Amino acid sequence: MNAYLKNLFILFLSLSLFSACVSQKNPRYAEVENPKISAMLDTSAILKNSFSGLLLYDLETKKSVYSRYADRHFIPASNTKLYTLFACLNVLGDSIPALKYVIRNDSMIFWGTGDPTFLHSEFTASKTLDFLRENSDKKLYFSDANFTNKALGSGWMWDDYNGQYQPELSPFPMYGNIVRFRVKDSDVSIEPPIFENTFFQGKESQREVIRLVNDNRFLVNQEILESADYEQDIPFKTSANLTKQLLIDTLKQNVNLSRIAIDPNAKTLYSLPVDTVYRRMMQVSDNMLAEHLLLLCGATLTDTINTQKTIDLITEKYLQDLPDAPNWVDGSGLSRYNLFTPRTNVKLLEKLHDMIPEERLFSFMSIGGKAGTLQRMYKDREPFIFAKSGTVSGVYNQTGYLKTKSGKTFLFSFMNNNFNSYASPVRKEVERILTWVHENY
Fold first, then answer.
1. CA–CA gap between residue 281 and residue 120 (Å, rounded)
2. Pairing verdict, β 107-112 and 139-143
């Protein structure tokens, strides 16, 4: 054998061995074909101009049932909340850590943990307000020294600042970090009341209340003020000083600002049971809850509230066995910097299923035909989809658990990116294909 042929043979052998190693590394996620599913994907007029990846995985046999582009990275949108849920289930206990505090002589110093439920309109009153009122005989000092995060997440759209789905991040959220503006038969109500004098005349062409970009002044036109029925939630611009003013207005006593570093001996006050909060985060796809729950995990693991630091800790401690390294940058999926593969999502689903009872896990998910963002899909039949959807412009994904007609449980991740249309047609195609899987397996 001459030198050229010998080198060619060695190269061929090396490539063969490398290919074998790669396939052995994740044999359970190997490419698997089903002509009927492939035909549905290939002939779909809706999906033809998008990039779609699908992995169906049998929970019992631990093998792929169908796989297409399962190793490719996609923008996950709110599928990211599955990773936040996983972090919470690993780090938090059965109740939300509300704040940390120390009592020194006649003073109480307290630090936020990122608890998003304090005075949030969607939750019952927590112990936090009562606790602060019970200590009203002391000098109260609020410190945000443990918060090292920016108010907006990495890769968030700046021009979405006015959208109710993008509240700012803060160490001690109050009222969901939004102003709730309501008009009923021309009767205006504003919550929290501290913002009542911050609304000014806007342009007649405005279709909504608009906050100025850099401060808490809101523009509203006369037509909205005279509406028979109007409601809007607008994120307010957070700051330590605003937190102080909100606390003073709520507690009816003075609160001082401080930059005291968190005391290693600080005690933790707990508020609401976690399941109620997790369920709303997942089913309603509440971004504010997701972001602050992830921050809560960081505050529990360390003395610092910081998104990226939390993600790094969770990834290093719990997610080293993922098939593909994710690019995970926030808690909600608002950022387009997030990138996950379908088989990484499915691995996470498997880890979640191994952690807690199926009944509890499925109760967190949107349920096809019954609850959450999937309530209007998969109707007129016994629920068989328990999943998290994810939608941003040009992106529609579903990742979760599918019960087949024969009784099997499939883990699935169906990711669709880069379509130039509304999400609704893509959503219907996902429903059509996954319903076929339910009926035929």
1. 13
2. parallel
Question: With 50 as the cut, is the pLDDT of residue 15 above it?
Answer: no
| Burial (CB count <10 Å: 0-12, 13-18, 19+), residue 17 | exposed
pLDDT at residue 2, as a whole number: 52
Q: The pTM is what?
A: 0.92
- How far is residue 411 from each of residues 54, 162, 401, measured CA to CA in Å? 11, 36, 5
CB 303 within 8 A of CB 262: yes
Q: Are the beta carbons of 138 and 158 closer than 8 angstroms?
A: no
Which two three-digit tokens encode residue 6? 């010998």
For residue 180, what are the β-bridge partners?
A: 191, 233
The arithmetic mean of pLDDT across residues 148-176, rounded, is 97
Contact predicate 49/362, CB 8 Å: no
Burial class of residue 131 in the structure, from the number of CB atoms within 10 Å of its CB (0-12 exposed, 13-18 middle, 19+ buried): middle
Closest to 399 (Cα-Cα) out of 409, 389, 408, 391: 389
Using left for φ > 0, alpha for ψ between -120 and 50, and beta otherwise, residue 285 falls in left
Distance CA 18, CA 12 (A): 10
Which domains are present in the chain? 26-85+299-440 (3.40.710.10), 86-298 (no CATH)
Nearest alpha-carbon partner for 92 in 109, 108, 116: 116
3-state class (DSSP) for residue 89: helix
d(CA 168, CA 173): 9
Q: Is 56 helix (H, G, I), strand (E, B) or coil?
A: strand
